[in-house]
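thoughts on both lines:
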Amino acid sequence: MTKLSVNGPSFDNLRHTLAALWPVYTCGLAYLIGTALSGFPLASAIIAGVVTTIAIGVVFLYLRRVRTQKRKEFATPAVE
């Protein structure tokens, strides 16, 4: 697998850390929602899925905004 590096150490440790934290977040969220709605297991699963989808959407929107700003900073002006 190709290692990404930008003037320094590779991002493998960060990737592995985030990969390990994702199931912790998912299980913790499912537990909290499941205990709050103990009589409604289907509602618990649906709400956990919606919350997770919103969280992923927020991260993607944030990353897209950051990348757009960086592109504007490094864009070369048109030659006239």
User: Anything to note?
Assistant: The first helix runs from residue 12 to 36. The two ends are 44 Å apart (CA to CA). The chain has a mean pLDDT of 80. The chain is about 75% helix and 0% strand.
